[in-house]
Amino acid sequence: MERSLRSIALVLVLAALVAMAPAYTLVSTALSYPSSVSGNVIKIGMPISLSGHFATEGHQALCGAIASIMWINDHGGVKVGGKTYKLQLIYYDDASSANNEPSIVQKLVTQDHVNFLLAPYSSGLTSAAAPIAEQYHVIMLSHGGASNAIFQKGYHYLVQILSPASEYFTGALEIIKQYIPDAKIAFIYENGKFASSVVKYAEQKAKQMGLDVVYSKAYEAGTSDFSTFISAAKAKGANVLLGGGHYDDGKALVKQAHDLGWHLKFIAILVAPAQPKFYQELDDIANGVAYPAQWAPGVKYSPQIAKQMGIEWFGPTVQEWINYFNKAQSELSACKGLGSPAYQAAEAGAAILFLVKAIETAGTLDNAKVRQAMNNLDIMTFFGRLKIDPNTGLQIGHKMIIAQWQNGKQVIVWPPEVAQAKPLIAPPNWWPSSAKTTSTSPATHAASTSSPTPSPSPTTTTKKTSKAVLWGTVIVIIIIIIVGVWLAVRK
Amino acid sequence: MRMLKRPGFIASIVLILIYLVIGIAGQEGHLLSIIGNAMDTMMYIGWALALAVIMSYAGYVSFGHAVFVGIGAWMTAVTIESIMPSHPFTISMFIVALLLGAGVAALVAYAVGWVVLRLRGAYFAIATIGLDYVVLYLAIYTLSRAGISPPLLFRNLSLTVQSFYWMHFTVFVITLLVVYYIKASRFGFGLAAIREDEEAAEVMGVDTFKYKLMAFTLSALIAGMWGVPLAFRHAKFDPQDVFSLLNSVIMIVENTVGGLGTFLGPIVGAYIYYGLYWSLLTKIAQASFVVLGPLIVIIIALVPEGLVGWLREKFPRLRKALE
């Protein structure tokens, strides 16, 4: 009796599974924009984080891409070899997990037969997806992976849209070069993958530009007391501070530099100052603090600027694109309530434009030929200039912007062609007039006060933690052996 | 010779032939989709059969079995980035990685098994979880010593999907034949005796410790081999990814759903698991394991003997065909 009940239940479960099959396909067709296209279509696949810890950035990127697709489809579509194609985006949620990327990319390429791919958000997920795209010879446009590392592995079909990590402080260094002849730069930065690679490249560039770097130290993630770093940098006579990492440490670094009376002519910090709450929490201290960004709604890229620079303009103007982004918000449930577009949205939107231009230039949908055409593209879009390095696929045309807090407002100050205002050098709250006299001989000042304050070296601290891990493993192995022997003897 | 006429062997040969045909047909562009899925199923069958040797045949649940897949992937990283750096891909690179991956996995299993196989039941399972974490942190530590924050990305070896397919196929053939031989040989009967009643087996003259140790080592060897094509295909070594406990759970689920103690069980279980995973992946993303979990619980609660076991019980006539 029980057995027959069981077999009935089993059959029911299996039947339910089979019955659910059409429901799956119903859900899956909804994950495309536009949901149906008549006529010729170019399919673009996108694994994107709609849940998990990248959900915010993922939604921005998705809707940025959709805004550009709307604009292209409304403005005559894509013309390839005398035929007109509409764009369709097919996207799946990767749940912010690198584990899911290979299968999702495989599904997009082999089942949905997409012509091209947009990468997922973040460097980590992009590095999980890129090898699979490469195996199938499908172009993948990286719009959210800043790390240079992926592009040094010899991938041919991976193309970068945003500026790489190596470019984050380039604008700040240019400002320093132009405005502060007596600059002495201090780098104080988090030892994570992003910030340390940003600073590694910035130090090289500073050397090339003949700038004086007097201090450079990394701190452990989660550090809250920066006094040893600050006094050591101060003792070296540093008058420019570059660095940071994430929000909390970047904010604490700025606050403590000010509280300890460090007089600075220019400060640029990663990530933290981009948030509006940076000013709410630091008030006047925030004024004068600058930060690098990929894009901001206030940028002044326009067809006129493109003309002046002798580059072709492609796609919507900044305002047009923002309007389409808002349209996407009102039409699509996935895009509701995103507010103003963040730079993640602009990056993905620019990726679509760069791809469309390359397809039209190549005159074919063949991936190898479109990839070839990308090598020679040099265009200006609402996101800025786009041009790639033919060998690596790294973005070399796009310039990061530098924004700065001025009178409680975020103002774009660099590069000059898109700037809303001039950079504020030696802001009065950071460089009081009394400092000007003492700064005349910083070198002697440094020599007299530089007491040997041994700040914890970042390399030794990482070594310490790794050593702890090693000892931990040794102890665990010993415990396992002891328990094993004990059990054996007991028997 | 009699071994070669049994249904398990015939099923293996049929499977090998099917995958061979898919591989040859998949050289053309429009069959690429089949080739991707075929590669995945081969890998999941391989994982299931690797664990089956110790779990299904000898009755010892190795809960951290992903550790051996991870070691295989690690050794692939060592081969590509340290032993043969800046070489273009050659067959020898795959063979070196395979020998190294399988060899190191087997060595680790032998050394660890020598200690922990004296433990029984849940203790053995817990010890293998511990091993998984030890090796995971050892890998992270080694990478950070080399100045790499994980994952370690390999250089692009410019391999095609087809070459990955043949890598999987090679390991697949070895796995099927070796595991079938283990199951059908005298050694396999010894393991079955241990599974059913270890004391009785010992009394009957089975050297239980030696048998268990051999089974664990062989099972690790096969799992280690499967780490190699995986690492080549994903072009990276990500410790958090390959040593993930989730991979171990997948192996256990495949075995339990398919049916313990049978040769075909893990294979059937692998198809069921992969079918569900593939169809749910893009539908509910985050929730796919939420759905998968209860489904598996239901199946196990209703048919604890697994699908193949259930069919054997329900249709005694099929018993001969379902090994």
List keywords for this structure.
heterodimer; A: 491 residues; alpha/beta; Rossmann fold; 4 domains; 7-stranded mixed β-sheet; B: 323 residues; mainly alpha; two-stranded antiparallel sheet; 14 helices; 2 strands; 76% helix; globular
Radius of gyration of chain A equals: 27 Å
Number of E-state strands of chain A: 17
Structural class of the helix and strand makeup of chain A? alpha/beta
Strand content of chain B: under 5%
> From the alpha-carbon coordinates, what is the Rg of chain B to the nearest angstrom?
19 Å
How many strands, what sense, and barrel or not for the largest sheet of chain B? Answer: 2 strands, antiparallel
Percent helix of chain B, as a range, is over 70%
Major sheet: arrangement of strands of chain B: 1-2
The number of helical elements of chain A comes to: 16
Distance between the termini of chain A: 44 Å
Question: What's a quick, concise take on this entry?
Answer:
The complex is a heterodimer of chains A (491) and B (323). By secondary structure, chain A is an alpha/beta fold.
Describe this structure in words.
- The complex is a heterodimer of chains A (491) and B (323).
- Chain A has 491 residues and is of the alpha/beta class.
- Chain A has 4 domains: 1-28; 31-163 and 300-386, Response regulator (Rossmann fold, 3-Layer(aba) Sandwich); 167-293 and 401-449, Response regulator (Rossmann fold), CATH 3.40.50; 467-491.
- Chain A has 16 helices and 17 strands.
- Chain A has helices at 2-29, 55-74, 101-110, 123-135, 170-179, 193-208, 227-235, 247-259, 277-282, 303-309, 318-331, 343-362, 367-376, 433-438, 442-449, 458-490, and strands at residues 32-33, 41-48, 78-80, 83-93, 116-118, 140-142, 158-160, 184-190, 212-219, 240-244, 266-270, 289-293, 312-313, 379-381, 384-386, 401-406, 409-414.
- Mean pLDDT of chain A is 85; it is low at 24-30 and 437-460.
- Chain B is mainly alpha-helical and 323 residues long.
- Chain B has one domain.
- Helices cover 76% and strands 1% of the residues of chain B.
- Chain B has a two-stranded antiparallel sheet with strand order 1-2.
- Chain B is globular and about 55 Å long.
- In chain B, 52% of the residues are buried.
- The model of chain B has no long low-confidence stretch (mean pLDDT 88).
- Chains A and B meet through α1, α3, α4 and α16 of A and α2, α4, α5, α12 and α13 of B.
